[in-house]
Amino acid sequence: MGTVFYILFHGYRHCEIINLLTAMVQWLKFKYVKLSRYFPVLLPGILFAQFIFSGGNTGVRVEKAVPKIGRSLKILLPRASIWYKNSDSVKYYASSIITGGGIYFTSWFYAGFVVPYHMDELRKKTGNIISRGLGDIFINIKLIKKLDTSFYLGFMPFMTFPLGDLRVENPDSATPGENFKGGLFRDFTSNSYDYGLFIILSKKWRKAELHLNMGGWNGYQYPFAGAEPNLYIGSFALFYKAGVLNPFVEFFYSKFTTDTFGRAPVFITLGSMMKIGRFPSITFSMDIPLFHRGTVNVVRPDNSNKYYGFISPFPNFTPSYSVNISLDVSEIVMKESALSRVKILTIDAQTGSPIDKVSCKLDDHYRQTERGIADFGLLEPGVYELKIQKDGYCPVKKFIKVGRNKDIRIEVKLKRNFFTLLLKVRDQERNPVQAKVFFPGLHGKSFETNEAGMLTLNLNRDSSYSAYIWAPDFKGDNIFIKGDHTHDTLAVEVLLNRKEETEFFFPVIYFDFNSYKVKREYLPLLDQVGKYLLTHPDLIIEIDGHASPEGPDEYNYILSKKRAEAVKEYLIERYGIKRERIIIKGFGKDVPAVPNISPEKRAINRRAEFRVIGRSEK
Predict the structure, then answer these.
(1) This protein's superkingdom (predicted)?
(2) What one-character DSSP code corresponds to residue 522?
(3) What are the residue boundaries of the structural domains of the chain, listed by start?
(4) Domain 417-496 in this protein, CATH class
(5) Whole-structure pTM over 0.70, yes or no?
(6) DSSP track, 283-329
(7) Hey, do 340-414 and 417-496 end up sharing a CATH topology, with the first three levels equal?
(8) Residues 255-302: pLDDT tens digits?
């Protein structure tokens, strides 16, 4: 920013406006975006458009570079600005009533005008002196360029037409009760065509906007002073969108290029904009000058100059404060655009924070979010398929309808693709139990609870899980955790029963896809079964094998029986259990433990289960 003001202050000091603008364009081209193709379009307007800032005469405030949707109309209904100052001998009043309007011909091109009417009043003991009259008409155009999803650059060349009254006599010669033409404290006209240029940078957030203006003016209304009252200016405004009341603060700085005209206005503005309907809004604000201007002597022209009479330079009047109130009617749609602007907002469902670098796709249009926003720009009306993907989050797929001439903001809350399982293992007296936990859906991984009987795991949100929990001297237990829930943290408490000498809880043995090999992690469980059968030689058990539905039915029957047989052979070979004590059966896919609707649930159905079917007479 220091670079910009250096260019403005020193390039403009010598009125080298073309070199100034070229330098600014080169700086912006290097810093932000290639603007060279826009410069030839702006150059004729810069050379021809003229404006002089004159104490708020035109009603120009901090400008915005924010595009609108379609072709719309903006109307500035009478805006009243009232300045006041009180001294020991006199009271000064100055006010302006400003009207105007403009049209957004496209989302990126605006043209407007402002017509001011001014009233000055001086109250002193000898009588009141009043001056009323039309000021110079101000016109402008605005070109807007988007730099990224929430950052915009604008160019606003402008000019004034000298239609106001020119002051031709000294205010001290005014007669009380008569209308003094041309303004008492400020000139209602410059009597010349004056021009200038704003460069505008606008930044938008969800509820706030920041606007920065940089520019300068050439004015020719005071040649008698031997210098031109040229200005350079910098200003910014910060708006907060709170709802009905929207507060803002503005800072305005200006400076003459020579010391002939003294100090130029510097003030801060506090105010609020209130929406009173779909289109109208009322703005209240107060200007607070940051210093008082010094007195500038009246200059008498010589006979060779085409301007006659006494001309007071830039107003000596510096108010103590000013109050502004305006009624605006804006964004009245004149012609609906066939296109709509679409933005996707991605938010973490748990924290409410925006998520960056989220892949968003609307049909063939691809964007990645920046600060949680994916701006798809202007799209044709229709129905679009929205796909959103981000590592660590569940993918989103939905259809959205895009109408005509809309500003569409779609907020999508992304769920993390895992949830945290808090498993608590207790006995019937609620004492913690150190236990082992087997998850067949996690490739048969086993875990252990800590001394407090706690186990914490991050699991896939969309999956269902079955787990077998056992501990020495306790009956084992199976639990089932259903997927597709909305919890970020799921607490599960398991109460284990202490087993009697004659009691035993048979585990479930799970297998990999298309395999009947017993996995190593299940061998400790089978060792428990083998030891139990050795201590209970009269038990006769049945091992039932099961399969998931992939493949032919006949093949699955054979595979399920081989799984039961593999478990049986391990018990016979390792512990010498007699074959006639173990019966095996294969059920194929016919007896699922859970519905076969996902890969995780099908993994739960690839299993072998134990049943006690009798006791041997021997």
Answers:
(1) Bacteria
(2) G
(3) 2-70+86-335, 340-414, 417-496, 506-618
(4) mainly beta
(5) no
(6) EEEEEEESSPPPP---BPPPTTSS--S-B--S-----SEEEEEEEEE
(7) yes
(8) 877 666 666 778 888 888 887 765 677 888 888 878 665 555 544 444
